[in-house]
Amino acid sequence: MTSKKVLVLALAAVMVAASACTGMQDRPKQTGGTLVGAAAGGLAGAQIGGGKGQLAATALGVVLGGLLGSEVGRSMDEVDRIRAHQASEQALNSGQSIRWENPNTGNSGTIVPVRTGTDAQTGALCREYQQTVTVGGKQEQAYGTACRQADGSWKVVN
Fold first, then answer.
1. Are 55 and 7 contacting, i.e. CB atoms less than 8 angstroms apart?
2. Are residues 50 and 104 in the same domain?
3. How many domains does the chain have?
4. Domain that holds residue 146
5. Is the Cβ–Cβ distance between 117 and 145 less than 8 Å?
6. Angle at 58 between CA 123 and CA 85, to 5 degrees
7. Can you tell me whether residue 104 is helix, strand or coil?
8. What is the DSSP letter of 22?
9. Residue-by-residue DSSP string for 2-54
10. Which end of the chain is less enclosed by CB atoms within 10 A, N or C?
11. Which range in 47-51, 53-57, 143-147 is most confidently predicted, on average pLDDT?
């Protein structure tokens, strides 16, 4: 395991420990959002800079991603997550922009595939995408890349 991955995992563990100390164990959506956000933020931060700057960017990415993920996770319910996941699968499969919403919570989102390509090592179909989620009236954006797996599902690779 590379030192970057170890650092991301260590910082994510710190976020988990901190969240447990503040009573988040009673709020699994918020804890899950914190973990996903911390991991995504750490991986994004690891792509920036070099040397000591890269470690600082990774650490900052973990913290900021954890905070953002915590807020989104706190406010999204199970129906929101299911609809968002279904919209993601549909958008990635079709290459078309897909919107979802939950009239019970007022939360919504859009997944927009922006570029399609092939993974050089595996030959898998991959799509870069932009995702916008509105939770409690606050809009957040994320960018990523997902590749189609052998079973037809999509796996986020960054």
1. yes
2. no
3. 2
4. 78-156
5. no
6. 50
7. coil
8. T
9. -HHHHHHHHHHHHHHHHHHHTTGGG-HHHHHHHHHHHHHHHHHHHTSSSTHHH
10. N
11. 143-147
pLDDT at 23 over 50: no
pLDDT the model gives residue 76? 74
Q: Cα(93)–Cα(99) distance, rounded to whole angstroms? A: 14
Same domain, 52 and 86: no
Question: In what order do the strands lie in the sheet containing 138-148?
Answer: 98-101, 108-118, 125-135, 138-148, 154-156
Q: Is the same domain home to 26 and 92? A: no
> What local confidence, expressed as pLDDT, does residue 158 receive?
82
Residue 131 burial (CB < 10 Å; 0-12/13-18/19+)? Answer: middle
How many CB atoms are closer than 10 A to CB 17? 9
This prediction has a pTM of 0.54
